[in-house]
Amino acid sequence: MPSSTTIRPITRQDLDQWLPLWDGYNAFYGRSGETALASEITAMTWSRFFDTYEPVHALVAESEGQLLGLVHYLFHRSTTAIAPNCYLQDLFTTEASRGKGIGRGLIEGVYERAQTAGSGRVYWLTHETNHTAMKLYDKVGERSGFIVYRKLF
């Protein structure tokens, strides 16, 4: 990661630069145009970062006043541990920033905050076709072997 890059918590002043990153992340997963998230979801996601009641958090990578990436994570309880688990939910960097350690820096930022919170585990999901990201994930984490099932309503 370039030495001029800082990983830091998001601030309310970041909205104008966060939104294109958020839109890019969603477009990557097919949520754009007719399948885009409702604006109410984006507004609620943004507001959760600043609500102390919510367990949802965000970090950004910044260099020279420009946001290069984002990561969203949340803490939740588990029936198999006393300490909270940390779920890394969203990770995205600008195309120009890829391969420069920004994604790794954002993941490590979540690791630091999870350790500070007393969490014993950080975990995340990715799509099986996201081979580029998996090259990084295989270096910074381990595959759990679990398969995800879901039912949409």
From TrEMBL:
Q: Which Gene3D superfamilies match?
A: 3.40.630.30
CDD domains, per this entry?
NAT_SF
The record places domain N-acetyltransferase at: 5-153
A molecular function annotated in GO for this UniProt entry is: N-acetyltransferase activity
Q: Which InterPro entries match?
A: Acyl_CoA_acyltransferase, Diverse_Substrate_AcTransf, GNAT_dom
What does the UniProt keyword field contain?
A: Acyltransferase, Transferase
Q: What is this protein called?
A: GNAT superfamily N-acetyltransferase
**What species is given as this protein's source?**
Mesorhizobium sangaii
